[in-house]
Write a structure and sequence with these properties.
Strand 2 and strand 3 form a beta hairpin. By secondary structure, the chain is α/β, with parallel strands linked by helices.
Length: about 375
């Protein structure tokens, strides 16, 4: 069916002609691409020095009749998470392409009814951004926070979410909770650490759960350095606060019709976030942590339509470990370079509408913003 649709689609006429010649097109940034046919199916073969370390990968050329289905899976499905235009576009481009794809993705996301009804209002910026140290080692420092109480509570009694984000990889974890006593929070954190490893530093706010004697003792036993933010200054823990906002927005969109089931959506939405490349690093959190791309909805859809699956080169365990280690080192190095660039770019953009406030001792400050 896909082959016939590709052959009959008038919008793919030029691509069909290019596939006959098989000529490589070289861009100014060093990337190359060409259109080819394999088993009667049209593909775009693409390679770039900054994508997959120069490896060539294939994107299926999608005919008009199939495009809405690709966009729906990438944006609206439970593993899509109603993310923004750029992240949805990156997800689609991992396995598919078509003429005018970027504009189609933007229009689709902007016209999504659920996204429009749950779009957050803008906030006025305050003072210029400061700088945080750049963390290079995965799980050297993690940020932890609690979200809630969330209304309504779920049918299973969950009212809160414990959130953890790694500074180096942006890899998130989230666990629904019924109560947030110090013992319960410590137990859930130990569960997360047992899956991902124990961090060297943990940054939290000064909530009673995080400064309690129980948490101090747990940190001492595990040799974890505890860092706390300034009271009433959530921006100091901006990484996890930003993810909190993203997770709440995704839950709100997915649970619009069943608000008491929000805890059932956390794991699928975490997958959607982890498999999507981050603008700040250029890689997905999953790839930075595990050194490989994950098989997600786009890859599965591509396999179903083409009947083809990617077969990895056969290697010994020893060779696989060596290659994985080298790939992780290269990936993290590229991510650090991109993170430095993006931080400066964000800071410049943010500070355009910010102004410095010089306060004197004894001077009355502005009233706190409502929460």
């Amino acid at each position: 069916m896909l082959r016939e649709k590709q052959q009959q689609d008038p919008t793919l006429e030029k691509i069909r002609q290019l596939a006959e010649t098989g000529d490589d097109k070289v861009s100014k940034n060093g990337s190359t691409h060409k259109y080819v046919k394999s088993s009667g199916i049209l593909y775009r073969e693409f390679s770039s020095p900054r994508v997959e370390f120069g490896n060539r990968f294939r994107q299926v050329v999608v005919p008009v009749d199939y495009r809405d289905h690709v966009l729906k899976v990438a944006h609206e499905s439970i593993l899509g998470g109603h993310q923004g235009s750029k992240k949805t576009r990156d997800k689609v481009m991992s396995d598919f392409t078509w003429p005018g794809m970027q504009a189609d993705v933007t229009r689709y996301c902007q016209s999504c009814d659920v996204c429009q009804r749950t779009l957050p209002k803008g906030r006025v910026t305050k003072v210029p951004l400061g700088s945080m140290p750049l963390i290079e080692e995965p799980f050297q420092r993690v940020a932890v926070d609690l979200v809630g109480p969330i209304k309504p509570a779920t049918e299973r009694g969950h009212r809160y979410i414990l959130v953890l984000v790694d500074y180096a990889t942006r890899y998130p974890e989230a666990v629904p909770m019924k109560t947030i006593e110090a013992e319960s929070v410590a137990e859930e954190l130990l569960g997360i650490y047992s899956r991902l490893g124990f961090p060297k530093e943990v940054l939290t706010d000064q909530g009673s759960q995080f400064v309690s004697g129980v948490m101090k003792e747990v940190s001492r036993l595990l040799s974890i350095r505890r860092l706390t933010t300034t009271p009433y200054h959530a921006m100091c823990n901006g990484l996890v606060e930003k993810f909190n906002g993203t997770l709440k927005a995704m839950l709100k969109k997915m649970c619009d019709e069943r608000p008491k089931d929000w805890d059932r959506y956390i794991d699928p939405l975490l997958f959607a976030y982890r498999e999507t490349p981050q603008e700040s690093t250029g890689f997905s959190p999953f790839e930075l942590l595990y050194g490989r791309t994950v098989r997600g909805p786009m890859r599965i859809l591509k396999e179903l339509w083409t009947g083809e699956s990617e077969v990895s080169e056969t290697k010994t365990v020893y060779q696989y470990v060596l290659d994985l280690q080298e790939r992780l080192e290269q990936t993290c190095q590229l991510a650090r370079e991109e993170l430095k660039k993006s931080r400066q770019r964000y800071k410049t953009y943010y500070n355009k509408k910010a102004r410095v406030r010089n306060m004197k001792v004894g001077e009355e400050g502005p009233p706190p913003s409502p929460h």
